[in-house]
UniProtKB/TrEMBL annotation:
Keyword Hydrolase in record: yes
GO MF terms, alphabetically ordered: polygalacturonase activity
Record key words, sorted: Glycosidase, Hydrolase
Record protein name field: Pectin lyase-like superfamily protein
Keyword field contains Hydrolase: yes
Amino acid sequence: MFRIQPLVSVLLCCFTFWFHISFGYLITCSGIVPMRYRNDKVSITDFGGVGDGKTLNTKAFREAIYRIQHLRRRGGTLLYVPPGVYLTESFNLTSHMTLYLARGAVIKATQDTWTWPLVAPLPSYGRGRERPGGRYMSFIHGDGLRDVVITGENGTIDGQGGIWWNMWRQGNLQFTRPNLVEFMNSRGIIISNVIFKNSPFWNIHPVYCSNVVIRYVTILAPTDSPNTDGIDPDSSSNVCIEDSFISTGDDLVAVKSGWDEYGIAYGRPSSHITIRRVTGSSPFAGIAVGSETSGGVEHVFAENIVIYNSGIGVNIKTNIGRGGFIKNITVSQVFMENVRTGIKITGDTGDHPDNQFNPNALPYVKGVTLKNIWGVKVQKAGSIQGLKNAPFTNICLSKINLHGMTGPRSPPWKCSDVSGAAIEVSPSPCAQLSSPQQSGSCANHF
């Protein structure tokens, strides 16, 4: 027995490797961006940093990053943040650097909102996401960078978002709130082993990026904090998100690609997004695509997801005027507990940036596979509602079991303007989803 068992394990590993290679799912985070070792190391205290929670450290962070940018040490430089609370205004990172937070280190955003820099709106949005015009720069920001790492020993980046949430609630915002961390037009990014807390707006936002790895992170915000999405890959490619815990006031992970006519004109899709082993809760969705999908979203693969105390388990959402496409989306191995709606795919979600959107720009949704999903205390099984002039096609459901609050089954599905197939789905899905024998469109998805 002791001789056979290792052989069985090896054979199983080989089969798993072959299976993933054969079906195109072997996308490991370590393969997308290798972790860099930095020979050159400096500490924020070398530049006058003081971790007493009171001293403003903006000058120290900016001088340290200026040094890294201009000395250009071979292999890059690691900026070490020792234990302590380092209050600072927003700052920009530079290429070939690692921001390393020691255990007990906290980088905390100042609450002096009037000092926050403004930046131009994203071209794929045409304006700030909340308000017309520009937007406040993210707390930690990077544009046009290469080879950047944010990591450590589970230190914390704290956005102190409460003051921003109150401004939103009171209608006092002049511009769109800042993200906690945003990378634009960048590649070769790793974010790992850090706690992100109380973001003013979206937490981690890679936009127009490629080769991004986000793993072993914890993202926290109160359930009533507005628009505090966990991770939003936006018009980005080759993004891997894994082994993380997220509990926020909005979608845990939301894949986006621009807003109405601006996203259509910019035309940069989000593609090859892998999400695995993510656990969390949200009053909105666990795994989401949209609703801003005007540049297109394709090749999204999510697996081994745990969602609890949430609004929607899996939510794919778009709208008239979005244009773009959503295709080749696979979500599998999901467990959900105590959610209002298990699965929702809809064409009538989200607002518009202005009145200039084209009502004839209809989204194209095709090839969505949801399989091996188990839910308990699910109030409503699912809703799949396409558009009359743009029905959703090749919607494939298999091995889905969603239990209700008191009985074994939640209420039945609601569907319209959709076609596809379903097998082993309980409660029984809508009539528009025929059996696999009647529809060949999903034959290769089960």
